[in-house]
């Protein structure tokens, strides 16, 4: 099939004209245009370049392959052609090294989803506003596909434009299997932006771009399974479905709670690790027990709370999960293999390796979770091999 002869993009801009400034690309929905979505930019952080791109297909005034009530079933050839058209423009305005965040509304959200699923390493973040990921586009939605790609997702609980089953599937994938650290907001209402969503989006963009500019960005996406010295090889896959986890702060495990006896055995092992002191966590809920190293790595990204050396904590018994920090490849492996998920603020307000690890359900899982925490301890210790 020959490529569609799309014209060069029609782009409306706002904000910084510095060609090195972070770029936020705004993608409109069906029946809208670049000028309407650009009206969002004055409500978002300053010092950033904003570019609103008109969809290349006139039909419906939006990204027309998502045409069935705003989303539909994309035609693979049209999608490939249009992502290539978009990529050619993006490579011209944002060469390697310039951070790019996508913000899509409705059909534009589906297009943003297609772009990041196809090439997550190209982007610094993505906002999926009142839309769905393009699950029928032939793109991979494997576990860990979006590891280390911060995502902001917002939905209305009475949205009748996007089918509820697709909204729910998008929500579930982003907050679980994708591996993306996802800030989520679901509000009363339909298919329209609210002041609260815009405010929260602005906060998220500011924190993400601030983190990238000061700390750098971990490359997003799947990667080969790393070697775990603390597990004598590869991390196994966790069996069964993943537990329910809260999508609001504080992040808590809400099902498949570890038996209290296993939680206590895990804690006793953790407090025996070399150089570890214990006490109340400085960042978690009341009753969480923190693990602290006073002499360890000088890298603040290796800690939950670098100022006090807290690298992990165990949540109270009703929860039984842990938070800890891992190197990027190990953190992505934990997400992909089903042992945990990133904290929603990982890579924005917190270390990109800030992870929740689910509580162990049996003796086999206890041994694996011990190995995961020992890897966190080795990271905070500045060690490159097992340090217990």
How would you portray this structure in words?
- This is Phospholipase.
- The protein folds into 2 domains: 205 residues, Alpha/Beta hydrolase fold, catalytic domain (Rossmann fold); 153 residues, Aspartate Aminotransferase, domain 1.
- It is 28% helix and 16% strand.
- It is built from 8 helices and 13 strands.
- α1 links the parallel β2 and β3.
- α6 packs parallel to α8.
- 48% of the residues are buried.
Number of helices: 8
Give the overall shape: elongated
The CATH superfamily of the largest domain is Alpha/Beta hydrolase fold, catalytic domain
Beta-strand content = 15-25%
The low-pLDDT segments are 64-74
Order of helices and strands: EEHEHEHEEHEHHEEEEHEEH
- Work out the count of structural domains: 2
CATH topology of the largest domain: Rossmann fold
Report the biggest beta sheet as strand number plus sense, adding barrel if it closes. 7 strands, mixed
Strand order of the largest sheet: 1-3-2-4-5-6-7
Rounded to an integer, what's the Rg over CA atoms? 21 Å
Per CATH, the architecture of the largest domain is: 3-Layer(aba) Sandwich
Helix % is: 25-40%
Which CATH first-tier class of the largest domain would you pick?
A: Alpha Beta
Give the N-to-C terminal Cα separation: 59 Å
Short description:
The chain has 388 residues and is an alpha/beta fold. It has helices at residues 34-38, 76-93, 107-118, 164-174, 195-215, 260-271, 328-337, 363-381, and strands at residues 11-15, 23-27, 49-53, 100-105, 125-129, 151-156, 182-187, 276-280, 289-293, 310-314, 322-325, 340-342, 354-357.
């Amino acid at each position: 099939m020959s490529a569609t002869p799309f014209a060069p993009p029609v782009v409306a801009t706002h904000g910084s004209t510095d060609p090195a400034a972070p770029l936020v690309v705004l993608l409109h929905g069906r029946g809208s245009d670049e000028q309407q979505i650009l009206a969002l930019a004055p409500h978002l952080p300053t010092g950033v370049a904003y570019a609103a791109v008109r969809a290349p297909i006139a039909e419906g005034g939006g990204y027309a392959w998502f045409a069935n009530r705003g989303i539909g079933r994309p035609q693979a050839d049209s999608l490939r052609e249009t992502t290539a058209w978009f990529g050619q423009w993006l490579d011209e305005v944002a060469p390697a090294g310039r951070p790019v965040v996508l913000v899509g509304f409705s059909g534009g959200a589906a297009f943003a989803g297609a772009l990041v699923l196809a090439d997550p390493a190209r982007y610094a973040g993505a906002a999926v506003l009142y839309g769905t990921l393009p699950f029928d586009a032939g793109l991979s939605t494997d576990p860990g596909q979006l590891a280390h790609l911060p995502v902001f997702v917002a939905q209305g609980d009475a949205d009748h434009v996007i089918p509820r089953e697709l909204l729910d599937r998008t929500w579930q994938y982003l907050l679980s299997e994708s591996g993306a650290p996802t800030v989520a907001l679901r509000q009363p209402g339909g298919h329209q932006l609210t002041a609260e969503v815009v405010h929260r989006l602005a906060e998220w963009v500011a924190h993400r771009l601030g983190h990238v500019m000061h700390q750098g960005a971990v490359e997003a996406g799947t990667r080969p399974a790393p070697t775990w010295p603390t597990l004598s090889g590869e991390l196994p896959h966790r069996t069964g479905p993943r537990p329910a986890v809260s999508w609001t702060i504080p992040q808590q495990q809400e099902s498949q709670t570890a038996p209290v006896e296993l939680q206590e055995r895990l804690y006793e092992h953790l407090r025996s690790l070399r150089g570890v002191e214990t006490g109340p966590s400085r960042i978690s809920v009341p009753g969480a027990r923190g693990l602290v190293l006073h002499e360890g790595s000088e890298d603040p990204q290796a800690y939950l709370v670098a100022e006090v050396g807290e690298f992990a904590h165990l949540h109270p018994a009703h929860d039984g999960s842990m938070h800890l920090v891992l190197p990027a490849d190990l953190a992505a492996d934990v997400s992909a293999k089903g042992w945990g998920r990133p904290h929603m603020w990982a890579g924005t307000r917190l270390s990109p390796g800030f992870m929740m690890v689910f509580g162990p359900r049996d003796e086999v899982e206890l041994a694996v979770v011990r190995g995961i925490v020992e890897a966190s301890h080795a990271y905070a210790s500045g060690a490159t091999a097992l340090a217990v």
